[in-house]
Specification:
Length: about 375
């Protein structure tokens, strides 16, 4: 998921809505749009507004995800998160046991890959144990991984399949502790308590409904899944939200729902991801409080040269025009035609937005000739 708030803070100059054109050209393209992100599921700024106006976290979740239940995940489920890929060895401390050996938590240990197996060594390079194809190190609460950070739960290491000699550095932990290190990475802890609780439920739901198919892990620690930083990101306010919703997840039809979220909707969410199968609980809904977002509405300007350069891989000849042929249930672009001097080509809305660096595919194009208003 995209870290909704920090990205917008870094775009302060753009929040006013205008990016000056680069090189001068025969025409200027004006792109007016709304929102920031993929537009599917719960908008962070919309949820912020609902919390600010007195809505409870269940009300927030039921608004954005139609027909879901909110239930307790049974059995304190564990998740595995890829933290890093080490080029050969990993040093750690605060571990109580690993590879069948009791460890001194005050001491530092080193795991080193040899072929397809892992060996555990003391900090002074003395052999401690042969771990086979996986090292699992328990902790008394938190474990410190040199150069990576401090994390709750256990450390696991497995040989990286795609890089000879490397190790996947993985954190295995309870989903509630995972949420403690993820929620404050996605929304500001200063936001309303109900909004934080809604994100705590959504965060657990994403974690338990996602499997990226990694070697030894199901989740990434960045926006490919959702931001997770372990102990360094934890905050007392988001901790309270996690405790207040302990083990709660969104469900649909008896399974955990994938409660996707993003930064800003522009006033209306989209009903699903372009090209993906329909998901019944992901319907397009009005988002009345998204106006709190600095990218609720935006305007970008491009010279003709900039447009031609950015869209060169997709247009036949020199770009003459853009014709939107289909929009989603919100006004987001599904497909458009690029009109070039050599012919017309079709482009997906997400590809078009990415090529131009738009905040969202909710966009309208206007080409202004030089010397004309």
């Amino acid at each position: 998921m995209r870290r909704a708030w920090i990205w917008l803070l870094s775009l302060g100059l753009l929040a006013a809505g205008v990016v000056p054109a680069g090189a001068s050209g025969a025409a200027t393209w004006i792109v007016k749009g709304r929102g920031f992100g993929h537009g599917v599921g719960m908008s962070a700024y919309g949820a912020y507004g609902y919390g600010l106006h007195g809505a409870g976290y269940r009300q927030i979740l039921h608004h954005y995800f139609k027909g879901i239940g909110i239930d307790e995940a049974k059995g304190a489920p564990q998740v595995r998160v890829l933290l890093a890929v080490s080029p050969g060895e990993v040093s750690f401390s605060h571990a109580t046991a690993a590879c069948g050996q009791t460890l001194d938590p005050s001491r530092r240990y080193v795991a080193r890959r040899r072929g397809s197996s892992i060996r555990l060594l003391s900090g002074s390079d003395r052999p401690v144990a042969r771990c086979g194809a996986r090292l699992h190190a328990d902790s008394g609460g938190t474990i410190r991984i040199d150069g990576v950070g401090v994390y709750r739960g256990a450390l696991e290491l497995v040989p990286t399949e795609s890089a000879a000699g490397s190790l996947n550095v993985i954190n295995k932990l309870n989903v509630n502790n995972y949420a403690r290190g993820s929620v404050p990475g996605e929304v500001p802890p200063e936001w309303p308590a109900a909004t934080l609780k809604a994100f705590a439920v959504a965060c657990r739901s994403i974690a338990l409904s996602t499997d990226v198919g990694g070697n030894g892990f199901e989740l990434y620690a960045d926006t490919r899944t959702q931001v997770y930083g372990g102990v360094k990101l934890e905050d007392p306010r988001t901790d309270r939200a996690v405790r207040a919703t302990k083990s709660q997840v969104a469900t649909y039809g008896g399974t955990v729902a994938q409660t996707t979220y993003f930064s800003s909707s522009g006033g209306e969410t989209e009903s699903g991801f372009l090209g993906a199968p329909d998901v019944p609980y992901l319907e397009s809904v009005d988002d009345p409080y998204d106006y709190y977002s600095p990218l609720h509405e935006w305007t970008l300007r491009f010279s003709q040269a900039e447009m031609s350069s950015r869209l060169a891989p997709y247009v036949d000849g020199a770009l003459r025009g853009i014709a939107v042929t289909h929009r989603g249930d919100s006004p987001r672009i599904d497909y458009a035609k690029l009109i070039g001097t050599g012919g017309t080509s079709t482009i997906r809305g997400d590809t078009l937005a990415s090529a131009l660096g738009l905040y969202d595919r909710w966009a309208y194009f206007r080409k202004v000739k030089a010397g004309r208003g």
